[in-house]
Each structure stands twice: as C-alpha cells, then as structure tokens.
Amino acid sequence: MSKRNEITLTINGRRHAIRVEPRRTLVDAIREDCGQTGTHIGCEHGVCGACTVLVDGAPVRSCLMFAVQAEGKEIRTVEGLAKGDELNTLQRAFMDNHGLQCGFCTPGFLMLITGVLEREPDISDEELIDVLSSNLCRCTGYQNIVKAARAVAGEMRQQRTA
Amino acid sequence: MASASVKSKTKHVGQSLTRLEDRPLLTGRGRFAADISFPQQLHMRIVRSNFAHGKLRGIDATEALALPGVYTVWTAPDVADIPPIDFRLSRIEGLEAYRQRLFADGTVRYVGEPVAAVFAEDPYLAEDAAELVTLDIEELPAVLHAEEPPGEFEPGRSTETAIVRKGYGELDAAFQAAHLIVEETLSVGRHSGVPLETRGAIARYDGARDVLELHGAAKVPHWNRDQIARMLGRSPSSVHLYEGHVGGGFGIRGEIYPEDVLVCVAALRLQRPIKWIEDRREHLIAANHSRQQQHRVRAAVDREGRVLAIDDQIFYDQGAYMRTHAVTVPDLAAAMLPGPYRIPAYRAHAHVRLTNKTPCGTYRAPGRFESTFVRERLMDAIAAKLDLDPVELRRRNLIASHEMPYARKLDTLGTEIVLDSGDYAGLLDKALAAVAWPKLRQTLAARKTAGELVGAGVALFVEKSGLGPFDQVKIAVDTAGYVEVISGSASVGQGIETVIAQICADALGIDYHKIRVTHGRTDRIEYGLGAFASRVTVMTGEATRIAASAVRAKAIEVASELLQTPAELLDVIDGEVTRSDAAAGPSVSLADIARALGPGSPLRHGRPPGLSAEGWFHSNHMNYPYGVHVAVARIDRDTGAVAIERYLVAYDVGKAVNPMLIEGQIVGGCAQGIGGTLLEEFLYDERGEPLSVTFADYLMPTVREMPPVDVLICEDAPSPLNPMGLKGAGEGGANAVGAAVAAAIDDALGAKGAVTELPITPQRLKRLMQKIRKS
Fold this sequence. Notes:
The complex is a heterodimer. Chain A has two domains: 5-78, Ubiquitin-like (UB roll) (Roll), CATH 3.10.20.30; 89-161, DNA polymerase, domain 1, CATH 1.10.150.120. Helix content of chain A is 35%, strand content 15%. Chain A has five helices and five strands. Chain A has helices spanning 26-33, 89-96, 106-119, 125-132, 143-161; strands spanning 5-11, 14-20, 52-55, 58-61, 74-76. Chain A has a five-stranded mixed β-sheet with strand order 2-1-5-3-4, with helices on both faces. In chain A, strand 3 and strand 4 form a beta hairpin. In chain A, helix 2 crosses helix 5. The longest helix of chain A has 19 residues, at 143-161. By secondary structure, chain B is α+β, with helices and mostly antiparallel strands. Helices cover 29% and strands 25% of the residues of chain B. In chain B, helix 9 packs parallel to helix 10 (368-386), helix 14 packs parallel to helix 15 and helix 17 (659-679) crosses helix 19 (737-749). Chain B starts with a helix and ends with a helix. The relative contact order of chain B is 0.13. The chains are: A alpha+beta, B alpha+beta. Chains A and B meet through helix 2, helix 3, helix 4 and helix 5 of A and helix 2, helix 4 and helix 17 of B.
C-alpha cells in the first residue's frame, strides 16, 4: 500500500480532513472517507455518470478524478441540494414528473442538471438533451427526467424574465 | 352521503399520486448495498477464471497472502462442504449435476467464473491481492453456439441439459392440410438487465444472538433465506435477510449467486463482517445474462391466412451452468409463444444447452421478448407470402373476447395457462387509432417516395402477471394513527411502497402519506415470495386490500361502541371513523381506536389486542395483460443506424392503481426493449473471451436513442381472478419491441422478412442492405 496524503475536501461547504492514498478516487473519498453516500458508483470507468458531482461548479465524474486533485475545490453533492426537509425545485420536479424509479442514477442526474442550468440557464431543449445523454438511467426511459429538467429550465427562464 | 364515502374510498386507487419512495432517493439518503458497512468488516474480492474452458491445475496465492492486510484467500477446498446453488423455479429432473458451486473445482467453464476469494482489510488492497493470485489453467476447446451439436459438460454428460416439450392438438394433420407452410430461422442476441447498481452483499454474524444477517438482498429474500440456511446447515429463523434500496432488478438481481453465499460462509468462519461490492466488469461477465436463443419455426396456414399450427425448435443458450431459474426462460418462451392467436395445433421443443459463456437467467419479459419476436416475425412472413396486410392477417387469428377465459392447454411456472380476460381486437383498434394508422402509412409512403428509408411496424402480445400461489400481508395501526403494512414482497425500484399504500389507503380510509410499507425483511414477516413475474401489485395488492378491510371492520366495530352508533352507519374517512349519513357529528380517530384496543385497555372488552389484521391472498393461476406496440423507424442509408422516431405502447392492465407509475414502467421497459433490439449484445471471440466488458462495449440506450413513447393504458379487461381486476404492468413495455421495430425496419427497407436476428446493429443492417441490393 502506498503512502497516504493528508488532504481536506470541502463538500457542500463542510470541510473534511482525511488521509488518502494518491490513487484513491474522489468518489471513494466522498463516500467512504467523508461518509456522503448519496453519490453512487455505477461503472468506475466514466460512462454512466451515476457519480457526477459538481467541482467548482462543473459536473465531474468523481470516479475519474483522484481525491487529491479535488483539494481546495468546492465540491457539491446531492446531499447539499435540499434545505433541511424542503426539496429544491429540481428535486421537486423529479418527484412530480416521476423522474426516478430505483433512484440509483438520480443523484448523478440531479447534479448534472444543476451544474448545467447554473451555467447555461438559457440552454435550448436540444442542447439539454445532448447534456442529459451523458448519463445512463436503466429504469425510466429518460422521458420523465427530460420533463423534469425542462420544467426547471423553463421556470428559471421565467424567473429571470419576470 | 353515500357519494362522499364512495369518493373517499376511491381517492387513491386510480390516481397518479407522487411516490412515497422518492424523498430519501432525491436527497442522498437512500441505502443501497455499497452504503452499508459494519465495523471490522473485511472486503471480499473474487478471482475469476480468465479462460472460457479449461482444466484448473493450480492456484497460487502465496504473493497475495504476503501482502500486509490480506486476511486469507479461499479456493474450492475451503468450501467443499457447501452444496451447489439450487433451483428456485422450473426445476425438472436431471439438472442437478449442472448446478454451479461456489468456486470452480477442477474445470473452469466461463470467463468470470469464481475460482478464489481474497479477504482483506480494504477494498483497494483486496483488489491488489486478487491480481497477485495466479491461476494455472490448461485451455480446452470452448462450446460457444447452442444451435450447433452439443458438446461434453463432463465425461458422460452432454451440454444439452434438457429438452422442454410443450404442445397440443393434431400437428401433423394440420401441416398436411396446410395451404401454405412458412418457415423461418430467427435469433435473439445475448443481453441482460444490467441494473445501474452492481450487485453487493454484506454478511455479518451476530454471535450474541446466533443470527446470520445478509444485507443487500433483493427480489426474493425469503426464498434466499431458506436456501442459505439449508446450504449452511442453519435454521431459517437464525438467518435474516435485509433488503435496502435496490438499484434496479429486471430479473437478474436478487437471485442467489456464489458471491452471496460466500460472504455468509466467510462471516461465520472468519467471524468478521464481510462486504462484497461487484465492479462493472465483473457484473458484465458474472451476473446472469439472458435471452440468447434461436428458433427454427414453421407455420401451417390455410388459404385465408388462418394459422393452423406452429412447430418450433428452440435452441437456448444457457451459458455455463444451470442457475436458480433452471429452465424458466426456455419454458416461458415455449409456453407463451402462441400469444394472442388461436393456433389450433402447437409444438415447441426447447433444447436447453450449455455453452462456455456466462450463465443465464431471466430478464424482464423473459421468454416473451424472444417468442413475441419469433411469433410476430412469423405472422409478418405469412402476410408477405399471402400478400395480405399484416394487420388484417393478425385480426383473422386473434382470440375473440367472447372466447375468454381461453384455456391454452399449455402450462408454465407450475400453472395452467388460461387467458383470463381480454379484447385483443379492441385494443388493436385503439392502438391503431391512437397513431392514426392509415394517415401514418400515407405520410410514410410519401417520405419513402422522397427517398427516405422509413417504415412502421405493429406487434401484438400477451403478457403474464400475478404469479401466486400466495401472499401474506400484516397491517397494524399505531397509537398515533399511523399505519404499517408489512409484506413479504420486495422493491426493485418499481414503486411498490406507493402502490401498496394506495390500495391500503382506500381499503382502510386514510391518507397514503400516513402509511409505511415494509418489505424485504425476513425478520418482520414469516412468508414472502418477493418481486418477480409482475406479481406484486396483484398478489401483495390483493392481500393488502384484504388485510386493510379487516382492520377497517375492526375499527368500525370498536367505534360503534365508543360512539354508540350502529356500525352500518359508520365509515372511515381520512383516519377518522365518522357517521356516513351526516355531514358533521361525533367521530373517533384510528389512533383513539388503536389505544382502545391496547392490551391493557378497559375498552378492549376481550377482543385480541391491537388495531391490526393479517391478510392472505391465494391464487393458482396467473393473469394475462396484453398489448400492442407500434414503431416508426428510420434507417440511415450510409451508416446502417436505426433511429426510432416514434413509439406507441397500448397495454391493458385490467385496473391501473397508479397510471403515472404504470406509464413509467412501460416507458422504462420500452427503453430496455430498444436496447436489446438495436444496441445491447454480449459478444465473445472464438475462444470464448467476452468482448463486452465495459459500458463502452456494451451499449445501453441514452436519452438520445429514446423516441418519444406514447402510452395508452387500458382497463377494458379487468382480471376476474381478483376483486380489483388487477393485472401486472412491469413487462409489457419491453415485450414486443424487437418484433415491432423489426417490422418497421422491414417496411423501411421494402423487404418483407428481412430482419431475422436481434440486435439489429448498424453492422448487421449494412450487411442486410448489401444483400438486398445484390438480390
């Protein structure tokens, strides 16, 4: 086993001082060392997107990043979306549109959509589909995930023009 | 006020209510297998065969054992006392010798077969150590094609494990009398459920209580408890299985695999909790594959296109061992092939054959995705030969609604197939109307004239659901007025908590948010059959209704005393027992009644303590939902890629408890059907080396490949087999995709019967187009 490094990860504004091997993936550090198991591992080779988190605002496959690379960056995970017991708009839209079944891919989709809509609130429907095609869901057939994402995008556009 | 009470009773069932399951899953509080950990746990990593077939001459774990933190390494002799994994369904004589043991011993039979297990303090370390275990394997020739003559499993034992025979009627006479005989060879490729969560199992032995716990269970926890207890020589009551959240099931997840048993044995023997989480590559080579089969089928047809007989030879590729499903998939393929048509004589022989590939089991609509493809391709071929419209040909063969119930004279899963209810022609009409079929044909004809390769296809099917023979449900109201429903069913993400709560809510008279549905816990209820065969809404749903009705009757009886009001004037509305004939008046809450029935309550008056009841539902027959798929497909002339432009699924489920969830099941199933039709295939090279071992090789549909799917849920044929008329909805979305898309591609190519093999990958379609151009 190689030497462990002391690093601090900032997840949803909270700092976690941990000791990790250089090869430890960010997702393992988030889940095992920081105890935030809402982020899931689906393939460990960067295809399915279940482990998507936001790193400095950008959606990242946390299975393809080492924990040591995330030091000093702002990491956001699904646990940071709701305010207490109150679901945020996107979470609510997933519930209202039945955008999840088993829920395993859901945190990845939520973080992907959050990251994209924050950066590109005026994203077109077609571009949104392109972005959503980067994550896999095996239960829903995507239709309701698209509905939920479009509903929130539309709401954000309305709020900005209001 | 009768109407008010009726209103209150139907306010949940039939409504598209949001799910009770969603909140924890949306906030990151779900508990999937990998999220479960225990102090002092060891991590298990499996060393797998890297040869498809070979003599295992030796295993050297010296280097692995030398790594600090490696606890031990096990191979076959360490678990020689543990019997092989037994069959759960469709057991037939003579299969025992083909069951899989926990580790290969002497012979390896597929790439991915467990040969050793490393137990270490850390999962990274366990993986490092597993890579240091060296295998001495002498390669043997691999058997890779079930449709070729069988090979040898072991000396004196053929790789053909069984022939499943089904049939009825005068087959030979029908073929002699036929105006036309149509023959086809049709194949379905090897693919599987591939849930987004890989498998996982965490076992812990609690010596203080002498209880073995297995966490990460799914699908059939009670059956698995009994099997694990039997294999380990323990009493079932000393083994508890716990189902947390399950990241997709689709048939494959939750069956007992070697890894599940290994963590249990290790937890007992090493006296440490053992955690095993599968990685994706392992999943793609070690978890059940499904579907692969070839049908050599022929039909006898009369002058008008009425099918007189079907004769089918099925070559079913089971992979290396007979797993828990035994012959379930070929049995279902053979038994369900006749579908919605009359077919006076029928014979199917399914040759169940082992190959040196990953063993197989069920996958959503097992046997039916395949046999619907075969039957509907056959109907299209007959229509082409007789120059009849494919829809008209189907109409001439459909079983009429007045013929229901219709005994198929076939059996499967231990039940006789009796089609319980259905208006097949009526649903076909509705489906075609929903897509404006004549207009759609015109539009497509115009686009074809303009040079596009576009076409449409229709496929019909009969599903099955509600497999018994029983389900048990216990319901109790607590002293705060909240309800717990305990069932032996399981959740694989399909939304059973919500559906069961909806049924309970109406039967009892309470808001569904006040109901907690407990499932997948062998320590909370004695019996359970779990979640498969689209059985939960039907079986657990009806048991829930029975139990909830009994609780309601108890509540009204007690309330009648407390309120000094005749019971027949009382109703339960939103958790309050109140007079049903007056807008306002005295009432008593279910919480008050639960307190009045407390063991020490003077108001109990000798009644059994607790506002609770148990419900049992028994059923010896499955019921049969049915549907129609319509696909519109466009082919890219240059690449051979198929884009599905539009899709419709019309499905009669008897009674829809939550239409939104049914639609979700159908669209999700349809996506998986599209995967198996166009994209997904487990490929092997000529030595049996798997080529589809990542999500870059095994392609599943993304949102890009999904067409808009229209769903038409119908309730025209409630099941007569349960009072609510329920049929299951889990598998109809997948069932006929291969058939409908194949027909659409034929239509686009202007070549009837061109598609004979799934998946229709761009490479295959290009070859097909070249062949058509040449002829």
